[in-house]
Amino acid sequence: MRRLMTALAFGAIALTATAVAQEKLQPTNNAQIDYRGFRGLTRDVEQVREQRLVSHAEFERMAREPNTIILDARSANAYARGHIDGAVNLPFTDFTDASLASVLRDPNVRILIYCNNNFSNNAEPVILKRVELALNIQTFINLYGYGYRNVYELSDVVDFNDPAVRWVAS
């Protein structure tokens, strides 16, 4: 009898755990938030992004070519305190269809991105983020999700004091 009660208790716990896990995967009542869609998008972007990581030398070469924009998605304040020469600023938190179209204009434009974690300095205005939360990741996913498919990401870690980086400090 004791074994039967124990088995029933473990069965109930397992069913409860399964129900809780399934509940977490259920869509929210907010039709304007789609976590499952985001997960699918990140899976799609993962392989594309791996092919679009470029060295600093390649980043600089591409930046000089026509129909190329260097996008700095850091805050306006961080951008104002320093950025790669020629970069345009659109803070990640301001990404919308309209704001991206206004700054990037052509959906086929080549977009080069970088973030704090591309700099070895770990000093203002590029304080390191946690590696799994580096802004490059969210920026790449969002640009891709908004339909910008010609995105390349700086893969190297550089010193913003190196003249080759072309850092503009304010």
Looking at this protein, list some descriptive labels.
7 strands; 170 residues; globular; alpha/beta; two-stranded antiparallel sheet; five-stranded parallel β-sheet
- What fraction, in percent, of the residue positions are helical? 40-55%
Tell me, briefly, the overall form: globular
How many DSSP H or I helices?
6
Percent of residues in beta strands: 5-15%
Q: For the largest beta sheet, what order do the strands appear in spatially?
A: 1-6-5-2-4
Order of helices and strands: HHEHEHEEHEHEE
Number of separate strands: 7
Structural class, by secondary structure, is alpha/beta
Q: Average pLDDT value?
A: 88
> What does the main sheet amount to?
5 strands, parallel
| Cα radius of gyration in angstroms | 22 Å
Any low-confidence stretches, pLDDT <50, length ≥5? 6-10
Q: Kindly, what is the distance between the CA atoms of the first and last residues, rounded to a whole number of angstroms?
A: 77 Å
